[in-house]
Amino acid sequence: MAENNYTFPHTIFTEYDKAHNVGVFTETTNHIYTEQTEYQRIDIYETPAFGKLFSLDGVIMTRDSDEFVYHEMISHVPLFIHPNPKKVLIIGGGDGGTVREVLKHDSVEKVVLCELDKKVVEAALKYLPNISYELKNPKVELVYEDGSKFVSQFKYEFDVILIDSTDPTEGEGGLLFTEKFYQNCFEALNENGVFSAQTEEPFLKKEWMVRAYRRISNTFNIARLYMGYVPQYMPGTWTWTFASKNLDPIKDFDPEKVKEFNKELKYYDEEVHVASFSLPVFVKKLISEFSK
Amino acid sequence: MAENNYTFPHTIFTEYDKAHNVGVFTETTNHIYTEQTEYQRIDIYETPAFGKLFSLDGVIMTRDSDEFVYHEMISHVPLFIHPNPKKVLIIGGGDGGTVREVLKHDSVEKVVLCELDKKVVEAALKYLPNISYELKNPKVELVYEDGSKFVSQFKYEFDVILIDSTDPTEGEGGLLFTEKFYQNCFEALNENGVFSAQTEEPFLKKEWMVRAYRRISNTFNIARLYMGYVPQYMPGTWTWTFASKNLDPIKDFDPEKVKEFNKELKYYDEEVHVASFSLPVFVKKLISEFSK
């Protein structure tokens, strides 16, 4: 028995995509936190490969090792297009990673984070300090309610709105994927307003990607899909849709502003900004085939 | 018991990365082929999510649903840089996907495919017809031997060399990842020669990515890393390194040639060509930090 080199970890986190019968797994060394809240099950694990891993209903939301990709891309692409972003609304994103990136822009005076589940914010503050620390910044106002309802009360209020939501569910995909919701976001933005939403990915979730993109482009004057290398979200690619009332993410982009930026970024720069809008042929086809 | 909705598939393919204790899995409906050859274990499965899935020693090599990304990117990036590619050497790539893409260029008169394991070619021809069909093209010469040895006999012979290898193993990473091998490829290329090799990825395999890139850039006059969205290879991102004696993959790129190309491509176009060389900040750092 001295030859027994069995070292397979005894605790495995598995994310299982029931619709396709595929999944990913990773060793965990500690199940730090678990709670069934009013809305969902929250889990936080310690993992050797990815550091802290945070899941909702068994789906990875963020993890220490590579969360920077998603959080930088949802934030800096729109924020570098707005000439002077002061007031930002984030819907979802209770882990705080998007808030952290937004606050790297010195012009920002106020960030309203509207997260449905207070327990997500509390867990992030306690267990994910590298991601959540800016949630305590005095510029941040935390609101715990349904984002679709919250945004509907504003007209010409925000410079930037970011939709950092969970995946859509059955039917209409949850209130954060409806055309009515996107219309309310449009109305809550001021004249130079810019918007970015996570819009799924083109390999396993192309129907939802196309649907979200189409609804956003039906609502805004300008809408452009962009992509990134996001290993935390199976299958490793993710998209967002930039939208605005009048600003174009390429024509109105000034690479000098990024070169002069005084904060450290790990993924995004002026080259990545432009390249992320260059979509693979099959993705261009997917979003053009579906008529408005 | 009428309520029992248990539908979890009874047969699961798992790719397990022992170094990181992470992995991916997918349902299989048929284990079409399995053989332990002199070199490796070959398996081919039917999967609902990805069509036919081909693995070597338990690692996914290719699959119907998204193989086009890898095969287009390793082929068209260098082939569109060479002014008139006629003679092409592919090392590895016994599934035939790279041959298929190379032969979309009408200028190509001859493709030599040097694959170590004849059983890979035989299995691909029998079970992966959509990927392998061009292996029977009369322009193709099949050679079954060690690619590192094979390439060392040529001087100024090829216009294009593509290294479509498996992952590096321990130590030197296998003969297809040594500086000596890359030197032999350099010598086997003629004056306008271009080269592309798969060079792993920057999240889980950054050491190998950097090592391969550094060795190629030590050898060639021009070397540039490029990236793609490749879900078949965990964690969903992949890199290749373009290299050449004198041609630059951006300055010497003519987008008009791609626009006029008369074959259908699903991933690559003139925009993707340029964008794939725009690397995330952390990837730029990884390849610049390691000194030659």
Automatic annotation (TrEMBL), chains A, B:
EC number annotated for this UniProt entry: 2.5.1.16
Pfam families in the record: Spermine_synt_N, Spermine_synth
Catalytically driven reaction(s): S-adenosyl 3-(methylsulfanyl)propylamine + putrescine = S-methyl-5'-thioadenosine + spermidine + H(+)
Keyword entries, A-Z: Polyamine biosynthesis, Spermidine biosynthesis, Transferase
Annotated positions binding spermidine: H71, D95, D164, S165, T166, D167
The PABS domain, residue ranges: 10-245
One GO-annotated biological process of the protein: spermidine biosynthetic process
SUPFAM superfamilies (alphabetical): S-adenosyl-L-methionine-dependent methyltransferases
Pathway: Amine and polyamine biosynthesis; spermidine biosynthesis; spermidine from putrescine: step 1/1
InterPro entries documented for this protein: PABS, PABS_CS, SAM-dependent_MTases_sf, Spermi_synthase, Spermidine_synt_N, Spermidine_synt_N_sf
Record keyword Transferase present: yes
PROSITE patterns per the UniProt record, alphabetical: PABS_1, PABS_2
Gene3D superfamilies named among the record's database cross-references: Spermidine synthase, tetramerisation domain, Vaccinia Virus protein VP39
GO CC annotation terms, alphabetical: cytosol
Record: residues binding S-methyl-5'-thioadenosine: Q40, E115, D146, G147
GO molecular function terms noted in the UniProt entry: spermidine synthase activity
Active site: D164 (proton acceptor)
Subunit structure: Homodimer or homotetramer.
Family listed: Belongs to the spermidine/spermine synthase family.
Function statement: Catalyzes the irreversible transfer of a propylamine group from the amino donor S-adenosylmethioninamine (decarboxy-AdoMet) to putrescine (1,4-diaminobutane) to yield spermidine.
HAMAP family (UniProt xref): Spermidine_synth
Protein name: Polyamine aminopropyltransferase
Gene that encodes it: speE
